[in-house]
């Protein structure tokens, strides 16, 4: 277990295991994006089933939930609010602002300061809480072909202002390049970074290293490469030995790859939810040799944020095509 001895509340929030009053933070969280309708647009076919999955996650010990205004948009935040309100003391909801959806359902950066401020207030209303425990600012630093004309400092300054007003407790970044993280840290403590990282795509490795160096929680998105890791031959051996699934081994490797890591697999299936949570036990039983072999599948020394793995490009292309 990774623990940091500093007493800063921001730093303590960032460690992989954190006391939150009642119980430690579970390093296997829940990514809520899939709870929206097809293509993450509109409500799901069965909203009550979505709410049941959220409640089951809490019952199974999940203490960290990842969401965004853009999911639906606003659909998923409302489902979380309806299912979990009032939010249990031990539950942290990390919500992303600064991104939205175009009329055609496309994913866009919406980081104008006025929009960022409005999205924070919308999220508080949808989640049914007076204060956001963690609000991420979505940036364009790790997504090819995406950019913003708004200076990072202008958009981030809104979150700093809202934190000083008591509406946000901790600030995170999503899609940050190493340079963006450094600029943000000059303005404010950063509690968490959500960037792309998985067994195949290590393009976020420099940001991960920076997070480790500064006690920042690292939350990888696409932890299973949008399902593209399920057939990976490299995962088959450890999965067979442990009686686990390849997906569980892929999540377990992330937990072993870095103590700063908190994973957020998503599902609408209760059985898959339980299996994802069980990845923490799988991680404890992976051998050092298995972890080293999986880590060595990619030369991390050559990985840079501007060059995602082909599996990520395929996933991004598939998502874009689904909105045409």
Keywords:
324 residues, alpha/beta, seven-stranded parallel β-sheet, two-stranded antiparallel ribbon, globular, disordered N terminus
Which term fits the overall shape? globular
What is the tally of beta strands?
9
Biggest sheet: strand arrangement: 1-2-3-6-7-8-9
Task: Report the sheet with the most strands, covering strand number, pairing sense and barrel closure.
Answer: 7 strands, parallel
Q: Percent of residues in beta strands?
A: 5-15%
Rounded Rg: 18 Å
Regions with little confidence, pLDDT below 50 for 5+ residues = 1-22
Mean pLDDT: 89
> Termini, distance in Å?
45 Å
- Given helix and strand content, the structural type is alpha/beta
Oligomerization = single chain
Series of H and E elements:
HEHEHEEEHEHEHEHEHHHHHH
Number of helices: 13
Helix content: 40-55%
Topology diagram in text:
Layout: H1 9-14, E1 30-31, H2 47-59, E2 64-68, H3 75-84, E3 92-97, E4 99-101, E5 107-109, H4 113-127, E6 134-138, H5 152-164, E7 171-174, H6 178-187, E8 192-196, H7 205-214, E9 217-221, H8 233-242, H9 246-257, H10 270-277, H11 279-285, H12 288-295, H13 310-321
Parallel strand pairs: 1-2, 2-3, 3-6, 6-7, 7-8, 8-9
Antiparallel strand pairs: 4-5
Helix pairs in contact: 2-3, 3-4, 4-5, 5-6, 8-9, 9-11
Would you mind describing this structure in some detail?
With about 325 residues, this protein is α/β, with parallel strands linked by helices. The protein has helices at about 10-15, 45-60, 75-85, 115-125, 150-165, 180-185, 205-215, 235-240, 245-255, 270-275, 280-285, 290-295, 310-320, and strands at about 30, 65-70, 90-95, 100, 105-110, 135-140, 170-175, 190-195, 215-220. The strands form two sheets. A seven-stranded parallel beta sheet has the order 1-2-3-6-7-8-9. Helix 2 (about 45-60) packs across helix 3 (about 75-85), helix 3 packs parallel to helix 4 (about 115-125) and helix 9 (about 245-255) packs across helix 11 (about 280-285). The longest helix is centred in the middle third of the chain and has 15 residues, at about 115-125. The chain is globular, with a radius of gyration of 18 Å. It starts with 8 loop residues before the first helix and ends with a helix.
